What does this fold into?
Amino acid sequence: MFELPDNLHPDCGPVAWMLGTWRGNGRGDYPTIEPYEYGQELIFAHDGRPFFHYMARAWIVDENNEKVREAAIETGFLRCRPEGKMELVLAHHTGFAEIWYGEAGDGKLELATDAIARTESAKEVTAGHRLYGNVEGDLLYAYDMSAVGQPLQPHLWARLQRA
It folds into this structure.
């Protein structure tokens, strides 16, 4: 059973339901890659200040849900502002970093990119949109991406359960 921490910062209230570790499966697709299935773990941690530390890792799975290889890793900070305003700062192992802005409330968090920087060897990513929702106690999310000359479109979606 999930319990709110005693030291939860008031600005974090709209996303408090996200705290903890989530695991599950998802699907990826994009015009420049073959569709794939993946497993994923998300961790949202809080220490009383107005932000969550965020860490996500994924792995490609086969038709039997067996791990084939490691996949994406991202980490950052979900900065909670007054009145449900949110800022997300993310870094990816693939060589790019992003600034996101959005809003949270009623069991939902929606974010869009404001700025993206990349290293010389990283693929071009130009925009993103993320939607997280609390659906029947699970964390569902969808990530739309614009990259490598493609317009903004669905890329990843998953359903995760609280670990």
Notes: The radius of gyration is 16 Å. The beta strands are 20-30, 33-45, 51-61, 67-80, 85-92, 96-105, 108-118, 125-135, 138-147, 153-162.
